[in-house]
Amino acid sequence: MSELCTSRAVTAPAATVLENREVARGTFLLRVAAPEIARRILPGQFVMVRGPGEGADDPLLGRPFALYEVNRDASGEPTSLDVVYLVIGRGTAALSRRRPGDRVDVWGPLGNGFGPSSGPGPAVFVAGGIGQTPFLALGREWLGRATYGDQPREVGPPVSSATLLYGVRSADFLAGVEDFERAGIGVEIATDDGSAGRPGFVTGLLEERLRSGERPAKLVACGPPPMLAAVARLAGAHGVPCDVSLENHMACGFGACFSCVTPILQDDGRPDLRRVCVEGPVFPADRVDWSRPSH
Ligand SMILES: Cc1cc2nc3c(=O)[nH]c(=O)nc-3n(C[C@H](O)[C@H](O)[C@H](O)COP(=O)(O)OP(=O)(O)OC[C@H]3O[C@@H](n4cnc5c(N)ncnc54)[C@H](O)[C@@H]3O)c2cc1C
Q: pLDDT class for 179, splitting at 50, 70, 90?
């Protein structure tokens, strides 16, 4: 079925699944044929995906997933997009049962996406759990190795290097490390149980770098809220600009239901609620009110 355009977002009802394979423990790479969305989507934006489960309306709501990568044909024309997801509950479990040739509903691109690089210095991405997913496309764009979207926009000067600090519970959850390395993004790993990389939290890797005097031009983080709060604290303490990509629960994905709101500090220092799906998911770390538990 063809894609329907509404403003910048496109609905791809019954988009064909091209691939859906397990790439790490409980973690799947889903490739869907949605060329109009693939043509428009930017790093840091997301799509809602609804993969029918037991019945046509089960689950009723789509689930949000960050752009992992856009795939192109030999002429460079976007043809499909990849998301990488961890099976958590009903929606992702239903999705993991989709096979090539099955259909899923996809709508997007949604959200604001990342801003321009603060190059030409180094960029450091900090990911916890499944939070690595937005950084493949972002790293490729900031390194000047790929372009995304169909509109002219400011992407900033290429960064001198991009490094992913990637923390997971154990080595079997590591997903796509080779994709990042192939893209020229250095990867440093931390595991809670010490089964790969540095034992302990990923914020330990960041703290070591900052304490040794390293000053990235920009930090960007995605992962569980306590990790994001710790990264925001470290960035503030060392004077490094930092953005975070939030992954709040959301129902509609396009700003209608207000289920994903989070307190964002305004110019006068007071928090005001903002929709993660429309005004986010990317926010400056020092604008997020980390003292409130709604993210
Ligand atoms: C902008 C955005 C981008 C995202 N990108 C990715 C991605 O690239 N890859 C990926 O794997 N996931 C991503 N997520 C998270 C993903 O959408 C959820 O894991 C998914 O919706 C869970 O659906 P489910 O039906 O499997 O679980 P549900 O049945 O809906 O929930 C199962 C359990 O998990 C909890 N839960 C569900 N969602 C969240 C959440 N967001 N935060 C904390 N707890 C939650 C619920 O409270 C419940 O206890 C993203 C979320 C957002 C908002």
A: very high
- 59 CA: nearest ligand 1 atom: 25
Pocket test for ligand 1, best of 65, 87, 107, 245 (most atoms within 8 A of CB): 65
CB atoms within 10 A of CB 10: 22
Peptide bond preceding 225 in cis form (omega within 30 of 0): no
Which of 136, 247, 254 has most ligand 1 atoms within 8 Å of CB, for mutation?
A: 247
> Is there an atom of ligand 1 within 6 Å of 85 CB?
yes
pLDDT reported for residue 5:
43
Q: Tokens 């330990």 label which residue? A: 204
Question: Which tens digit of pLDDT belongs to each residue from 194-223?
Answer: 999 999 999 999 999 999 999 999 999 999
pTM of the model: 0.94
Distance 63 CA to ligand 1 centre (A): 7
Give the chain's domains with CATH numbers: 4-110 (2.40.30.10), 123-245 (3.40.50.80), 247-289 (2.10.240.10)
The per-residue b/e assignment along 184-197, b for 16 or more CB within 10 angstroms, e otherwise, is ebebbbbbeeeebb
